[in-house]
Amino acid sequence: MRTSRFIPILALLGAVVLVQLLTLAGGKAFFLTQLTMSAYYTLIVIGLCLLMGFAGQISLGHAGFFAIGGYTSAVLTTLDLAAYKENPLVAMLAKAGVLTARQDLYGGSLLSVHPWAACVVAVLLAFVIAWAIGIPVLKLKGHYLAMATLGFGTIIYSIVLGTQRFGAADGISSVPPFPLLFGVSVSGDSSLRVLNYYFAWLLVTVAMVLLLNLISSRVGRALRSIHGAEDAAGAMGVDTARFKLSTFMLSAVLAAVAGVFLTHYNGGIGPSEASIMKSVRYVAIVAVGGMGSLWGTLIMSVVLNFLSLRGYFGSFDDAVFGGILIVIMLFAPDGIIGADLRRLVGKIANYKQQNSNKSQ
Amino acid sequence: MFFELFFQYLVAGLTYGTIYAIVGIGFNIIYNTTGIINFAQGEFVMLGGMTAVTLYGFLPLPLAVIGAVLITMVMGGLIEMVFIRWLVKPTVLRMIIITIGISILIREGALLVWGEGVRSLPYFTGNEISALSLGGVRLSPQVLWSIGVCMVIVLFLNLFFKHTMLGREMRACAANRDAAALCGIPTKNMITLSFVLSAGIGALAGCVVSPITYTQYSIGSGLAIKGFTVAILGGLGNSMAAVAAGFILGILESFSIWVLPTAYKDAISIAILLAMLFIRPSGLFGNKEAMRLKDF
Amino acid sequence: MLRIRNLDAGYGNLNVLRRVSIHVKPGEIVTIIGANGAGKTTLLKTITGLLKAQAGEVLFNGQDIGAMPTERIVSGGCSLVPEGRQVFPAMPVSENLLLGAYVQFKRGNKHEVERDLDRVYALFPVLKQREHQLAGTLSGGEQQMLAMGRALMARPKLIMLDEPSMGLAPLMVKEIFNIIVRLRAEGNTVLLVEQNARSALKIANRGYVLETGRIILEGEAEDLLANRDVQRAYLGRDAE
Amino acid sequence: MKILRLFAAAIIIALSAAPVLAAPAIKVGAILAVTGPASFLGAPEAKTLEMLVEEINAKGGINGSKIELVIKDSGASPEKAISFAKQLIEEEKVFAIIGPSTTGETMAIKNIAEEGKTLLLSCAAAEVIVNPVAKYVFKTPQMDKHAVIRIFQQMKKMGITKIGVLSSNTGFGKAGKEQIEKLAPEHAIQILVNEVYDKAATDLTAEVTKVKAAKVQAIVNWSIEPAQAIVIKNVRQTGMTVPIFQSHGFGNIGYVKAAGAAAEGAIFPAGRLLVAEVLSDKNPQKAVLLAYKKSYEEKYKEDVSTFGGHAYDAMKILEQALKAAGAGADKEKVRTTIENMKGLVGTAGIFNFSPADHNGLDLNAFEMLTVKDGKFTVLEK
Questions:
Q1: Are A335 and A301 within 8 A, CB to CB?
Q2: Hey, where are the domains in chain A?
Q3: Does residue D33 sit in the same domain as residue D137?
Q4: What ipTM was reported for this prediction?
Q5: Considering its fold, how many domains does chain D have in total?
């Protein structure tokens, strides 16, 4: 059981390395830029897949959590506290390494929050907001749930768009690189492209391991029972409310982490990242990947995000995602990759059940 | 001056309110017969307005409006027949996603057909600057038109649902689809009809408010969110309540501007919606009894 | 009138009915008895097209209705009074009845609807008294009568009743069963599904016993009443 | 293993399928918001570029090289602009990028262009794009501050000192609002009300009422969305008769049509494209403006807008610089050529670039216009 779970993970790592080598051999290393960005979007989407597929809860506001992560980090790391150097609190923070002095592109010196500290704050913030929002929202069902999450997304969007500190419509640019180890940092610098690619996909792999372990654990079985029949799960003594909430928070945190790193990778963030259309896109990707099929979602996320970011859809970008939503939901509500696999599993389960019935 | 201002804000609120209310009613009609929240409802409003503007190029205004309403009704029916009719017991999640997809496709389609330009119908009476003055409070005649049309729609729906056989059949279908089928009522046709009807109402709304708000390919989703808010605030499925909730939301928004910066106007109205959902999902005017005896 | 052969039906992957065969002849009351979950309601839903059969055939007056949508089956003269009445709660009694006459309106027998209405009111005088009251506010027994009246408004050739006595006071149960007998006397054919086996068999001509989706026994009603297995399994409870 | 090999083969085929450069053409990239919330900018810009490149190539190109235009539709999303900018610079190896349409996107890729040493000719307005100056980044629209100064000068003439300011929550609205706030004190203008509204607003009576209550002498509205036509209507409907000043975003006859009678008398600064016909024949811009207007309107059967003009100017600047630098000039040489370019007549004004000024337009780029009988006309001094 355990080994079978590791094989796909190894395959994923293998594919990541293989793609890098192929792009290197083909002289197409620049594909890695879009693949790296796709990796961060994939982080959000697999979290959402867990929420939609396993806990059966739709969220039309996940771009909001991405924005919370990205904007928090962007604001904190571009904040200039140099003027308050004398303030004892600022001085203390600077001494503790929470604040860091750096130079901007045009030679001005800044004193702003260290990216690591900003990242912690951003993720904590997403965590707390997901908790606070999750408790009442997840009590709702069906349309009410969809509307509440849509409302949450809209509120985040209008706050981002209406606030001077968030750069309003222009967003925030010149976000500094995010230092990792040994002088490597998350940034758009083309000399760091390969390392950034590996870092992003490492994050995705870690998240996949986490999520796969989760869905095959006791909690995971409980989650699947929620998707099947919530009342039944409740009757079986599964604390559905708690599981729904923790899944929601986990997916929100994944989105926020993605937001933090993609913002540093891009060197900025704009309000389009918080828009409802973005949230809808994530839902579309989960739908086409197969609700509850983490691998299907991962594959479709890479394919669709990569194509979209490279501009293959041209002016039909939104239309493509709208079309995907309809076609998939009409003809293959289980997704195109997940469907066959799950039908097979279903058949086996059925067969077993019939056999055991016969033996009775 | 204070009273004059007060009433001016009130008038502004009524203007927003009617727009929200008409969209909200459209949501309710489909919700009632199908249990589906049609996320593409805002697109019907846009389609109505855009079609009317196009028709107005070679038809007199009343004919252009009627034509636009009819064309949009046909579109509504077609959409239902193509995307929804043949689904066997779709889940709510699936329906939400499908209607979102439809809304995106209509929007992008409109962009292809009409481009990104902003259009509007002429004022039904008077022009852009004419205003009725009521003791210092001024309002555009078009606001009266939209309030009037909203009232006519509500009246028409009440008569239709309460006093015609077809209306009763739709209500029966809404209350209990299986039981309606057991009466021999072709439930699928009733659902198509509900799409036709709400598309028509949306389109009419789109025509009436177009001189005030203008139409553009992308106005649908913004209106849909507001209409949705109103439908839920009033209590899903209750058209009269949606109108009342529309006015309440419009007036609240309008007065919030009096005291607060306007940048967060939308955030405020949606926060109200969220609070409503958390505290009282049956809506302002809904109660448990009404939820049980679901009615229009 | 109704002939079902080797019917398999169920929900999704779940098989509820297995090779069920029954028939109903004109002018008789046929009852299907069985425990909770035996598949009685599934059977009626499948006959009326609310559920699609997985295998087997359903013939009504010689016509295969297996693939027809519900409304066409109802138009054809096969009405069901569903389990739990399912009246339209937010509409007055009179409108509920009028909706039942939808089939008649469609057939163009508009002027006959008025007469049918009087007939139903004569059958259930209490409905006449409550004519303008919302159906949701009626008592359980009154709702059952309304549901039956609504079905009768379509002038069905076969009327099927799903657990008409469920949740009703004994006195009311008695009245409902009296009315069923009267329906037969007026020339109707009735297929009655009941948990209350004793009362059902008492008024029925023939009966079937449904157990976990299979017909395990069939015969004349009095034979079944006398059958020891039936007595032990279904009549024991109320054999006071 | 076989699957792996197939997979590898598939990827290699996919990668090598990318188009191969055949002729020694000059590649010019464009990142424009053709769809999405800023499509009213991007759509005419894209059309203008396509038209211009067609014209240039029909004449045999520049110094014998044809122009190859690669337009990417960003939908006004900075993250896409970033992805496209990297693509255009690293893969397509474009000579220059025209666009993006919005300030947010331009700021997001400013560093990328700088790092990639590729010319960026932005069609977005905000001052931050060229201040601080980045070596490779230029912009063609006029400065917001010049628009604001022209409005304030006009107010002075009319004796207006107390104003109400309305702006939309877009990059354009934000930039204008900032300049108004910054410049008002030095022009002795007092801002009594300062409100930001949603760009998708459908009615602004309440906002307007707030302005009315403050008893202002004039209203300044700064937006490019339909809302600017709604504002002007609502102002008149509430019975206010004070002058209304609009931004240069009002330079789209569609909005005047939409606002109908309410638009009469609105005053706004704009490039001269909108009033090309009524300019005096001595005006050096007249010929350029009429030529652009005529060919655009003939080709696309729609009214020309100033936004398309920004792309026009960008392409013209590039064309001139390429010509002047001579065949085979590298990016650095062309960059220096632009930096030293003087007196180039464009639609937005006459460009005089310098190493410190990457916009090259002055106060004179704007003309104060007004609306009379549903048409734009020059405001009588």
A1: no
A2: 3-359
A3: yes
A4: 0.82
A5: 2
> Is D277 within the bounds of a domain?
no
In degrees, rounded to 5, the angle at the alpha carbon of residue C220 between the alpha carbons of residues C215 and C223 is: 95
| Residues D219 and D161 reside in one and the same domain | yes
Q: Are residues D30 and D121 in the same domain?
A: yes
Q: What is the CATH number of the domain that holds D165?
A: 3.40.50.2300
Do chains D and C touch, with touching meaning 3 or more CB–CB pairs less than 8 Å apart?
A: no
Q: Which domain holds residue D42?
A: 26-142+285-361
Spatial CB neighbours of A349, under 8 Å, sequence gap ≥ 6:
none
3-state secondary structure of D281: coil
Q: How far apart are CA C24 and CA D168, in angstroms?
A: 74
Judge if D116 and D50 occupy the same domain: yes
Residue D3 lies in a domain: no
Give yes or no for a contact between B224 and B107, defined as CB atoms under 8 angstroms apart.
no
Per-residue pLDDT of chain B (296 residues; tens, 9 = 90+): 677 778 888 888 888 888 889 888 888 888 877 778 888 999 999 999 999 999 999 999 999 999 999 999 999 999 999 998 888 777 778 888 899 999 999 999 998 898 877 888 888 887 777 777 777 777 888 888 888 998 899 889 889 988 898 988 988 888 888 899 999 899 889 999 999 999 999 999 899 988 888 888 888 888 888 888 888 888 877 778 888 899 988 888 888 877 776 667 777 778 888 888 888 777 777 654 444 444 33
Chain C interface includes B165 (CB < 8 A):
yes
Domains in chain B: ranges and CATH: 21-123+141-293 (1.10.3470)
Q: D158-191, pLDDT tens digit by residue?
A: 999 999 999 988 778 888 898 999 999 999 999 9
Q: What is the DSSP string of A116-163?
A: HHHHHHHHHHHHHHHHHHHHHHTT--HHHHHHHHHHHHHHHHHHHHH-
Separation in Å, CA of B47 to nearest CA in chain D: 16
* Structure confidence by residue, pLDDT tens digits, A84-121: 777 788 877 777 777 777 766 666 677 888 889 999 99
Q: Is the pLDDT of residue A294 over 50?
A: yes
The answer to whether residues D134 and D149 belong to one domain is no
Interface check D303 vs B, CB under 8 A:
no
pLDDT of the residue at C147: 93
Pairwise CA distance, residues D306 & D309, whole Å: 5
CB contact under 8 A, A37 and D102: no
Claim to verify: residue D343 and residue D296 sit in the same structural domain: yes
In a domain? residue D17: no
Pair D258, D322 in one domain: no
Q: How many CA atoms lie within 13 A of A121 on its CB side?
A: 16
Same domain assignment for residues D155 and D133 = no
Query: Which residue in chain A has the smallest CA separation from D106?
Result: A170
Asked, for residue D378, whether it belongs to a domain, the answer is no
Give the nearest partner residue to B263 out of D169, D202, D209, using CB atoms: D169
Distance CA D58, CA A308 (A): 33
CA dihedral angle for residue B235, residue B236, residue B240, residue B243, rounded to 10 degrees:
80
